[in-house]
Structures are given as structure tokens and as C-alpha cells.
Amino acid sequence: MPDQPSASARHDLENTVVGRLAALADRTRAEGLSADLRKDVARRVLDVLGNSLAAHAQPSAHAVTAVARDWAGAPRATGIGTGDKFPAATAALINGTLAHSMDSDDTHLPSVLHPSASVVPAALAVGEATGAIGAAVLDAAGVGIEIAVRLGMGGYDEELGNSEFFERGQHATSICGAVGSAAAAAMLYDLDVEGIADAMGIAASFGAGLLEANRTGGTVKRAHCGWAAHSGVTAAEFARHGLTGPPTVIEGRFGFLHAFCGDRADTAKVL
Fold it and tell me: Reduced to 3 states, what is the DSSP secondary structure of residue 249?
């Protein structure tokens, strides 16, 4: 079966980029973030909530929430400001869209991305669905933000002075955010190191986002973070049920960095 990794490939996960990121996630879940980092993440959660509540009049909010209300599913997580509950991945879609609809969410430079608008909604949705304590949600969101930023830095070209994602018309916020969201969701679903790595490996196939709307218009960009959050939660749910991702998903010949950034990618910055 060619789509199944060999036992040795799985065993060597600790030597891959995604394996090392998954180990960071697992270690942080066990040890917890420091008090100052939890405080920083809590500020980002508050920022996401404020942006989300302020965005309800936006066309993107109306469109995504209307579609989500038509989807069936168990009511497990809250859509911010909607008064309704949805499946975790659906709530993450709504809330990620709300968080980015005003385009005033937190920004990391020089990776040129908004890390919290996808990761925090994913963590909040899965945290609510699983009954996680607040500290665990903050720890998961903190790790997811860290991973999204690290992936964005892997695509930053110092000589160019810009993100290679951006130069190629790709929205690093949604592409990297999907992987960070998957890590956060997988932590809260209590997956082991392999499961967290699988969730990120799966989400790397789901992350997407073109920036043409910045040039010629359209409100689709505002939904990018929602789709990234949705993709991350869905990837973690797939991993829970046995779907796997490639162990070299970040650094491989057909992996994340080379596919999106080509030879300008710098894997070392991710680690």
C-alpha cells in the first residue's frame, strides 16, 4: 500500500521538522506555558473576541454564519456573538472569519501573518467541545501561534525583505494558520506526539489562500482565517480517527515549504 508510511519512517518522526514541532506541543501540554506567556496568549484571546464581536455587520460574517447554520451537526462549541452552538470545526470557521473580518487582528513581523485569528478560534472551539480548562486552552493556543509564526518565518527571505508566500500571491496567515490550528486542536483532543504530527501533516494539505482580493476586490480574504481554523480542527479530528500525514510534510521535496516557497524557503528558521 504506497500511501502507508513504513514503520521506520514513523519511528524516525523525532528527526523530522513536524516531529520536533509535535514534541514541543506535547511537552508544553505536560509542563504548561510560563505565566507571562499565558498572559500574552490571554491578551490575544481577548483581542480575537473583541474583533469578532465588532465584525458581525461585515458581509463575510453574514455569509459564513448563514452557511454554517444550514449545516447539520452536534452543537458543541459557540459561534461568538451568534447565540448558537455548532460542531467544533464549524464554530472555528465562524469565529476565525469573524476574527479576521475587520483586518485588525494581531500581526507578526517579519513573517507577515496574523497568527491568532485562526489558532485562537480553533483552540476555543475544541476547548469548549472537550471541556478543557482555561490554562490548557491558553497553552494550546500559544503553541499553535508559535508554530504558525515559525512556518511563516521559514518563508521569509531576508535578501528580498519580504515573505516569499506574499511574493507568490499566497496568504501565509491562512496557510500557516491551518497547521498551527491543527496543533492546538490536537493538543486539546489529547493526541500523542504522533497524533499531533499527523494532525499538522494533514492540515498542511488543507491550508490555502490567494491574495488577489487585495488587488482587485472581493471579501473572500476575510474568510481565510475561518477556513484555516476549520481545516485545523478537521485535521485533528481526522488524526483522532487514524488518518495520517507524511513525516516529512514540512521539509520534503513535495512538502509545505518547498511547495509554497520553493528554493527560498529556510527550514532552519522553523526550528
Answer: coil
5: left (phi over 0), alpha (psi -120 to 50) or beta: beta
Helices (H), ranges, 102-162: 116-130, 134-154
Find the length of the chain: 271
DSSP secondary structure of 72-110? -----EEPTTTS-EE-HHHHHHHHHHHHHHTS-S--BTT
Q: Which residues pair with 162 in a beta bridge?
A: 157
Question: pTM of the entire structure?
Answer: 0.94
Pick the closest to residue 178 from 250, 227, 112, 135 (CA basis). Answer: 227
Pairing label, strands 85-86, 77-78: antiparallel
Averaged pLDDT, groups of 10, the chain, 271 residues long? 50 89 98 98 97 97 97 95 97 98 88 94 98 98 98 92 93 97 98 98 97 94 97 98 97 96 94 94
For 250, the 3-state DSSP assignment is coil
As a dihedral over the C-alpha atoms of residue 148, residue 106, residue 124, residue 257, rounded to 10 degrees, the angle is: -10
